[in-house]
Amino acid sequence: MADAGKSTLQSILENLRDAAVGFGERFANPANIQPELTKLLADLGIDDPLPGRAVSNAMRDAATAWATIANQLKGLNFNFLDPASAVQGLVTIGRTIQQQLEAMGRLPASTAAALGAGAADIARVLPERLLHYIVFEFVTKSHRKIGGAFLLLGILRREFKPRGASLALIDANIRVFDVGQMIKVVTHPREAILEALKWGSDDFDSQTVVDGVSLLFGLLADAGIVLGPEVDAFTAAEEAAFVGRSAAELGALRQVSARRTLQAPSPLGNVTISLVGLHRDGLGLMVTNPVNLSGGVGSLNLPKPPPGAIFAVSAGVPPASADPRVRLLP
Fold it and tell me: What are the φ/ψ torsions at residue 234 (nearest 5 degrees)?
């Protein structure tokens, strides 16, 4: 995050530079290029078929260029001795960062030639998807408080993109950084969030919501809260036991429900809670072992939540929906 006293423009440019540097440095070690590309292509919805990992092999030149760009950007100097030249200097630096980010989204000629028939489809989606990926990963990894808030507001999210007729792409939930959503949440916050994350529908983006809540919980790591695996699924069979729908019906839906476990120490009794996605019912909090709460707060006696129950936070169907509600499932 930018230091106090820096201009907003300088802070934005420094963060963009750091995002590009952090991304490109993943490919600085030649031994890491193949496995890192394999993971990246899956996240970008680009097919990397076996045998031979044909696409990641073809894109080694591109990844090497990304590492070179990262090294060049790392040396950008934001220290201006002459205040009068600072603005022009920032404009020049901003143009450099923009050009280098655009270069990351272009396929080198050698890569395009090696990809053959799939090159056009990959070149069509790569610039936008790669830029969004770089921003998404940087914000959620380096600025967790902002990242968590942006996820819950739908500014950052994972959006389903079908492969269509292309043989070079795969169906995937693509990372999105939606600048337009920033404006929507200011003018019509509730409707904007419900629409972007598809609350109340079978396309509910539970992964984004679970990621956002988990990031904010992760800020409490010093209090002893431990987060489970980042990528986990609440299976159709498990969800069916709570929502009155068959596992076959839920399993046929394109959105897979996400899950993230949290372990909290005493005085809560070492409780384990799972954040789970529920297609039409929103976000669920499932207590997977007994919570040892004793006494109460003032005259209020605290209930003992049953293990295995889900407290569902339902937002309704966007945009004109009933007030959000919390209920116990099943």
Answer: -90, 105
